[in-house]
Fold:
Amino acid sequence: MLIQCDDIWKVYRLGDVEVQALRGISVGIQRGEFVAIMGASGSGKSTLMNIIGCLDKPTKGAYQFDGADTARLHSDQLADLRNRQIGFVFQNFTLLPRTSALENAQLPLLYRGLTLHTQRARAAETLRRVGLAGRERHYPTQLSGGQQQRVAIARALVTEPALLLADEPTGNLDTQSSAEIMDILASLNRDGMTVIVVTHDAEVAAHACREIVLKDGAIQSDRMTTDGSTAVEV
Structure:
């Protein structure tokens, strides 16, 4: 099991007010799955994404990533886990504007002890995988929104992570570009990559093989979408 959440709670306190962002989340995700985590604004999906991505810790409960109890890891160990095992893709691309597509994709490798030639070769290969061969020297302003998101995906892939975690990856894209990005994620999954997409968009979630729906911080349903099985209400 790559992802294992057991009775995860996340509680925020704002003065005298207690907000339960997550309430008793228990879910497991195997290597090689393509999962969409869905829910309306305030459902807890972004909070769950932050915990899965080791960007935050639960208030209560246990979270294991690839068998490692994250509660036992120090901050620098968590940072190393994120950098080596998790590739992040965000809605706003977060590319360096004065840096080429190749250099943006290369960034996560700068402190890995690799030669510059190896870094550039791996970055170029990931750009090729997302359909940007020939665009290596283009800057973000010379690329469409869909192409910029492809660069962001290449950057997430360049470290060969165990998990690709995408937060609303099509939120700033038109319909055609959105479909192309989701096709890329589906292709990566077919090649064995574990992919989790956090979204409120049912059309985006339809590309996944499994849909987990959150409501008010709890799992409302968890269903497979590729074998005809019906939704399981939790």
In short: The CA atoms of residues 168 and 199 lie 5 Å apart. DSSP finds seven helices and ten strands in the chain.
